[in-house]
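Checklist before submission:
- one chain only
- standard amino acids only
- sequence pasted in full

Submission:
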Amino acid sequence: MRYCINCCIHLLPNDLHRQCFRCRGPDHNNQKCPVCKGENKIPLYTESKQMKWLAVLEVRTDHCESWNGFFCLRKGKLCSLMFGLIIMTLVMVSYILTGAKHGLLLIPSPFHYGAFASNPSLMDNESLSDMKDHYQPSKMNISYVKDYPSIKLIIDTITSKIEFITRHRPDLEELRKQEPHMFSVIPNKFLPNSKNPCWYEEYQGNTTTDPYATNSYALYSKRFRIIFDYLRKVFWNHLYHYKDKHYRLRCLPHFYIIGQPKCGTTDLYDRLRLHPEVRFSAIKEPHWWTRKRFGIIRLRDGFHDRYPVEDYLDLFDIAAHQIQSVLQSEAVREHGKMNNIIIGEASASTMWDNNAWIFFYDNSTEGEPPFLIQDFIHAFHPNAKLIIMLRDPVERLYSDYLYFASANKSAEDFHEKVVESLQLFESCVLDYSLRACVYNNTLNNAMPVRLQVGLYVVYLLDWLTVFNKDQILVLRLEDHASNMRYTMHKVFQFLDLGPLSEKQEALITKSPASNTRRPEDRSLGPMLPTTKAILRDFYRPFNTKLAQVLFDDAFLWKRT
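Returned file contents:
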């Protein structure tokens, strides 16, 4: 087939190219045609297959007159490529914007894990990336709106597997075998004239000895070194001398703010520490019971040397010095008055984080931890008081995501992470008990968002196996935010604190809220309505049980 390169850009039906818009007539001849003749006119012969337009452009040697040089040999290929990319980009942008607007984008959940490995050694040693290799990815595509019924099936499966079974409580001898050093340091009786649990411990160092030289909190964290520098300066001034021996006052907390994260525990801590009878540890959240005593500094960094109980007790030395001043005062020594100063500790992980058990305690046959944090706290101080601050678990999870996620935060990303976490949780409850899944280190590390932290009633029931109900005060952040004076009075009454002046009370109740959502997180807006509906369905049976245990329907969170 023959083409006139100068004037024909489309495939013509025969050698005479009768349809040429510039060379007309059936008797056209290239050599005689005044338009087509010349040295720069190259007749192109092809087979019977269609000749593409770009291929024709590539063999042109002269400038096109009608398009001002656009379709030329030197520039044609580059311009055509750019034109194609622009069209492709516009099409893709149009598709994405249209799909996002109508909620029709199909987003696959990247992982759907099967049953968890029953081999304890595998679960102890495998990393998150290794663990994901053991399971098969899900074939389910999750749409924000259209695939809600599929997600509902996952939630229905989880709900069908929920059983609130009372755990076996270990006896004291079992606990002693697990932590013999702790039991050798902490006595089973405390000073009778102190409301706070304290005792005197013989100090065998001399004046040149640094009492905090080996404290792990001081060694591993630069921000705590200022505190310990101060403690070193005043340490010898607070030793008690008796019969040529030196004694230091040691104290445990009288009460614990044990949870939950992103539920207002920081605000409660900041207000409560303003009360003249309340002192706290030198560090707000030591995380000793849950992490540091196992050698966990940061979860992502693995294990380090375990922090001994002495390092934890050092954190209460500033408060102990003040208690000691009261104990040595004339009012206490001669008139038999009590020390009313109490110490608190506010690690928000205490209520729920038992993830380290699998690495240190013998595994039980059901995959449940044989010992929990509350077992040891109760063993050392059975009269301890516990404060729990909760909020709507749906909103707590979104706040938790915004606070801890490092990059690419969005309502859509949160939705994907929620769905993936639900699939993982479903896979676990199909083979293990609810408690085993809640305290499963492998599962909790694999879930992109911390769904399990919002299962409040599971943790509360386990704490109630060792502590009496009147030793636990459960508050709602929603009530605290709307009527702060009322909730603070409940806390003061629960801790049996002395009365306050109007000025002191105003300082505690009217100060601005602490640890509120960051401006850059607020700008992301709320979660997607579909995500909220999914989480409402997931948490509903747990909230229902919580309301039954506490005899308070406010913990159903129906109005939030």
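Reviewer check: The mean pLDDT is 80.
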